[in-house]
């Protein structure tokens, strides 16, 4: 067991336990806080995969904006400071069955693939991923079109969200 | 050396937990939490394939960044809708939001 | 490499020799040395934090025309130690109805979000915690965690005033992250990389001369991020009974307070690294690493003094004025400044240094002047509207 494997197992265990707490806890604010620890675990997984830019952007966008949005939404949609009643709906056993079935199906599909157990090639030391990412996102032969369309999507979402949630007095 | 299968199994497990959250929770905001977990598992999958394939092909990371942007847009609109529904019907339990108009 | 130029590597090699001499495998020895380095840095930072409390109290007293603590020890130097002893011996209260785990976790997260910032601060040419190539974005990430700790503190206190204070503070913090992020891209354009070490190495001319407006916007956004006056809606003592840290007493409050001062010092440090050259001082840093550390600490203290000066001079701004200032003035200004700087950089890239510096400086001044003119015209129109309405009301009252 190399150090990297132990590190990955610890982080993966932490993330999966946090994710299961997200979907089972009764108190919604606690669920949002467990989501934050899950997102942090995923950021560490990105760092383990040498995707440093993705790890930092995950913390800034998901934890710094989306998770805070969730906490605000939870606090704005409750009648008092406690959550009442059970949090699972009446068909939860079927949802559980479907989730286990999906997991089993994905593993079964992966078994037949030959490239499954390959290990990572060494990361080339002179490769600056951030630089390459910047070039790819802005060059006409790269991915500038999805980049621009994503920004238009974000503007549309911004305008739409403000309009839908606007409180006309 | 971590084999690729470990990352893929981890992403599949995260996806299944998110799926359970979407299908089995009453509260609409909790359903959106499950959707976030699924989007994160997809991102982990993309980043793992980028790293274990050809690192020079930066398309894997570009795809993951576009998924970040789409997830942020979807969560903001979804939560705006949930808040707007709460103002009208005074409930966020998904089972109780079952009338189109009264 | 001798000791004066590169003390960390010399110390690390010496310790590695000792540990492997005791029979430890090399990987474990290296991990242990890493942990030891982190421990030493954090201990030094916390001791610095204690003296920051003393500096803060002396400086605020001078601004308010009094002497400040001078009884306990020479010039009151032992005063912060007395404060810490007082905080430690207080009773550790968790209010009833508060969420225990979240309540106790919030001050720890607040302190953690400051300490992790020091992993990317370059203290000397070769003394850098981690040379991340996305160091500038890492600063924003640490700010996101401190936002989280405030909302946890406000919610877990089970207290309406704490919740309102936390909401306002978090709204201000996430709003001002946008101009800060935009302005952080300007040293990135000049240096060609987001890494803090690369930005420091590229400052043969300090970036304050290339982009003074960017430095000003960064200072304003940083003061808002810190939650200090004039942006301290979260702990407005006269309005919200001390905001999100009402229910915290004893050492938990001490963590919030000391964390805030260390955060202010750290942002003073980042302001000086990004715009005033960091540890560079006309070649002095090549002489010895300890001189470089002294230079950067001095510059960080000057930045901290400016932040304190702003705090003890200006009044608190109302929350809707704060947010309107950000969204209607600062964010558009930051975006326009980024576009102008990128355009001028592409235009003047290969020319002589004097032309480059003066071109950038003049373009910054031009953008600032145009922004102030627009602000003036808009405020004059708004003022005339209000005064016109007042005149109409007075005329009707006279009849």
Polypeptide structure, described:
The complex is a heterotrimer of chains A (169), B (102) and C (399). Chain A has 6 helices and no strands. By secondary structure, chain A is mainly alpha-helical. Chain A is globular and about 55 Å long. The relative contact order of chain B is 0.13. Chain B is mainly alpha-helical and 102 residues long. By secondary structure, chain C is mainly α. Chain C is globular, with a radius of gyration of 24 Å. Classes of the chains: A mainly alpha (169), B mainly alpha (102), C mainly alpha (399). Chains A and C meet through helix 2 and helix 3 of A and helix 5 and helix 6 of C.
Name the descriptors.
heterotrimer; A: 169 residues; mainly alpha; 6 helices; 0% strand; B: 102 residues; 3 helices; elongated
Using only CA atoms, what is the Rg of chain C? 24 Å
Q: Estimate the mean pLDDT confidence of chain C.
A: 87
The main pleated sheet of chain C reads as: none
What's the SSE pattern of chain C? HHHHHHHHHHHHHH
The largest sheet of chain B, given as strand count, sense and whether it forms a barrel, is:
none
Number of helices of chain C: 14
Integer-rounded radius of gyration of chain B: 17 Å
Q: Helix coverage percent of residues of chain C? A: over 70%
| Sheet/helix structural class of chain B | mainly alpha
Global shape of chain B: elongated
Overall geometry of chain C comes to: globular
Helical residues, percent of chain B: over 70%
Structural class of chain C: mainly alpha
Which stretches of chain C of 5+ consecutive residues score pLDDT under 50? none
Furnish the topology, listing elements before pairings.
The complex is a heterotrimer of chains A (169), B (102) and C (399).
Chain A: H1 3-24, H2 28-48, H3 52-76, H4 92-111, H5 129-138, H6 144-164
Helix pairs in contact in A: 1-2, 2-3
Chain B: H1 4-24, H2 28-52, H3 59-89
Helix pairs in contact in B: 1-2, 2-3
Chain C: H1 7-21, H2 26-63, H3 79-88, H4 100-115, H5 135-156, H6 160-191, H7 196-201, H8 207-210, H9 212-226, H10 237-240, H11 251-275, H12 289-311, H13 319-347, H14 353-398
Helix pairs in contact in C: 1-2, 2-11, 4-5, 4-11, 5-6, 6-9, 6-13, 9-11, 11-12, 13-14
